[in-house]
Amino acid sequence: MKVSLKKVAQFSVLSSLLVLAACGGGGEQATGEKEGQAAGGGVITADIGVISYISGPGAAYGEAITSGLKLAQKEINAKGDVEINLLIEDSAGKQDQALTAAQKLMNSENVTAIIGPTLSTEMNVVGPEADLNGVPIMGTSTTAEGIPQLGEYVFRNSIPEALAIPASMTKAIEKYGAKKVAILYGNDDVFTKSGFDTMKKAAEDMDLEILTIETFQKGQSDYNAQLTKIKGMNPDLILASALYNEGAVIMDQARKMGIDVPFVGGNGFNSPEVIKIAGDAANGLIVATPWYGEKDDSKVKEFVSKFEEEYGKKPDQFAAQAYDALYIYAEALKNAGEADRDAFRDALAQVKDFNGILGNFSFDDEGDVVMDPTVLIIEDGQFKEFN
Amino acid sequence: MLAELINPYYLQVASFVLINIILGISVYIPLSTGQLSLASAGFMGMGAYTSALLTIHFELPIVLGIIAGTLVAGIMGVLIGIPTLRLQGVYLAIVTLGFGEVIRVLFVNWESLTKGSVGLSGIPHMGREILASLREFGFNPQSLGLQNNQFIFLTIFFLLLVITAFIIWFFRRQHSSRVGRAFAAIKLDEKAAESMGINITYYKVLAFAQGAVIAGFAGALYAHVLAYISPADFAYHRAVEILVFTVFGGSEVIWGPVFGSLFLTLMPEVLRFISEYRYMLYGLIIIIMMAVRPQGLIDVHLLELLKSKTAKRRQKYGAGNQKSM
C-alpha cells in the first residue's frame, strides 16, 4: 500500500511537471503564431500600456494626455496600417502607484511598450524597472534632467528644460540686450527646481550677471519680500522657474510693484491659465514651448479642430505631446514589422525627422529629443510667436 | 503555470502592503500609550535618506544601511519623545506634525547632500543586489525555473514577509508582557498608572521611540524597494495616510493596523478597473466604515467574538469526531 502511494505521488508530480512544460511551450507558440499572422495580414496589432495621472490634484494633466492619446489612436486605427490597443492605468501621481501600474502592464497585460508616466519623479522609479524588463517606455511630459539616461529602453518626446529654457533665454537676451538677471524659483518642487538648475547654468554659460537668487514655496501667496529685493537691484530680465499658478501671482504682484521687465519662464509657466489669473500683468512673459496651437500649419489646425470637436476645448501642450507620441509609436511599430519589444525598441530609436504637430522630431543616441522649440511671448493678453 | 502565478505585479503590491503594515504598526505603538503621533512620515524619511545616502556614497551593504537608518530614526525618536512627554492628544499631534515638516524642509533645502526636491535616484535595489551577490556564488534563478525579475520580487516579498511576521510577533509578545500592561495602564489613566508605581516617563518615551524605530526601518526598506526617494514622499500626506491605516483598521489591537494597511493598500489596486473613479470609491468606503465603526474595523470585541465562534465550532467538530470513532 505504502509503495503504491509513493508511486502515485511520483506519477502525479511527474505528470504535473509535464503539463506545466506543455503549458509553457503552448503559450509561446500561441504568441508566435499571433505575431506571424499579424505580419502576414499587413496589420500589426500591439497593446500599448499607458500610465497616467488620472486621479488626484494633477488629474488635469492626465486627462489632457489620455484625450490626446485616444484621438491619435482613433486616427491611427482608422488608417489601418497598425492596430493599437491602449490600456490606460492610473498612477495618482505617486511613485509606488506608478510602479505597480507598470508592473501590471508589463507582467499581467504583456504590453509591447508603455507611454507615460506623467511626472518625472514617477519616471525615475518606473524607467529603470521597464528597462530591466526590456519594455520600451516613453514619457510625454517628463522634462527633468536625466530621464532618457535611465536606460536604453527609456525615451521621451517632451522637450527637456535643458533645451527649452536656453532657447527662450537666448531670444530674450538678443531682443532686450539683457546683461543682469534675477532668478526666482520654487525650491520644493522637482519641476521648478530642475528648471532653476538649467536657468542658472544657461545664465552662467551666457556670461550673464546673476544679481540674486530668490526662492519660494508651493502654495505661497505673498511674494513681496522677494520682489522688493529684486526691484532694488534693477535687473534687465527676471528668470522665473515656477508653475503657472504661482507664476501668475508673482507676475501680478511684480507689475503692481512697478517691475516692468520681461519674465522668462520654464515649461510649467507655459499655460493659458497665466493670462486668466494675471490678466494684463501677464504681458511680457517669454516661454519656449514645443506646442503652439495658433501655428500656421495644416496638421496643427486639423488637430486643433478635431480635438475641439471631440472634447469641446482647445488642446494644451500635454495633449499635443501625447498625440504625437502615439504617432511616433505607430511609425516605429510599422518599421519594426512585429509587436516584439526588442524589435520595437530598435525601430523606435531610429525614428528620425518625424513630422508631427510639434514640428520636426528626432531622437538622439540616448533617446532624448532633438527639435527646435517655438518661443512665445504674451502680448495684449495672448500668446504670440516671439522673434 | 508556476511562472504565471509568480507575477511581479502581485508581488510588488504585496511588498507595498507589507511595508505599509510596518508603517501602520509604527503609529499603533505610540497610540497604545495614548500618544497620537504624526511624526511617522518624518521618521520614515530619516530612515530612508540615511540608508540611501550611506549606501550610495559609502557603498555600504544594504543591511548596514537599513540598520543605520533605523538607529538614526530611533535616536531622533528618543530626542523628540522626551520634550513632548507633557503634551497630550491634539497638542502632541501638532508638535509631531511640525517635526515631520521640519524634516521634509530639511531634505528640500540641504541640497548639497539630498539633491533637494529633485530626490535621490540610483539607490541600490534590494532584490537586484541580492540577485547580484547570489550570482557570484554561481546561483542562477533559471535553475529554479524563474525569470530574473520574478526571482527579484519573490526574494523581496519573502524577506519582507519574514520581517513583518517577526515585528507582529514581537509586539504581540510585548503586549502581554510587563511593558505591554504598563502601556495599557498609561493609556487608560496616566495618573492612576503613576500612582501604581509605573514609570510613566520611561514607558512613554519607550513607546514613542519604538514607533520611530519601526517607521525608520520601514522607510529604509521603502527606499531600497523603490530605488528612488524624494522629499515629497515624506510630506504630511504620508503621515495622514499612515494614521488612516491604523484608525481605519482599529487601534486597540495590533491586528487593526495590520488589517487597515492590507485593506487600504489593496483597495486602489483592486479598484483599478474603474480607473479614474477608484479614489472616489476608496474615499466613500472609508467614510462608510468610519460612520459604522468609529472605533476601527477590528477591536477587542470582534476578536473575542471570532474566538468564541471558532472555539464553538471546534467543540462541535470535536464532538462529531468522537461520534464517528
Task: Give the arrangement of secondary structure elements.
The complex is a heterodimer of chains A (387) and B (325).
Chain A lengths: L1 H40 L2 E9 L6 H21 L2 E9 L4 H14 L4 E3 L4 H14 L3 E3 L14 E3 L4 H16 L3 E7 L3 H16 L3 E8 L7 H10 L3 E5 L2 H14 L5 E3 L7 H6 L6 E5 L8 H14 L5 H20 L4 H9 L4 E3 L2 E5 L5 E2 L3 E6 L2 E4 L2
Parallel strand pairs in A: 1-2, 1-3, 3-4, 4-5, 6-7, 6-8, 8-9, 9-10
Antiparallel strand pairs in A: 10-14, 11-12, 12-13, 14-15
Helix pairs in contact in A: 2-11, 3-4, 5-6, 7-8, 11-12
Chain B lengths: L1 H4 L2 H24 L8 H18 L4 H20 L7 H21 L1 H4 L5 E2 L4 H11 L11 H28 L2 H11 L1 H6 L4 H27 L1 E2 L6 H14 L5 H16 L7 H15 L7 H25 L1
Antiparallel strand pairs in B: 1-2
Brief description of this entry?
Chain B: GO terms for molecular function: branched-chain amino acid transmembrane transporter activity. Chain A is an alpha/beta fold and 387 residues long.
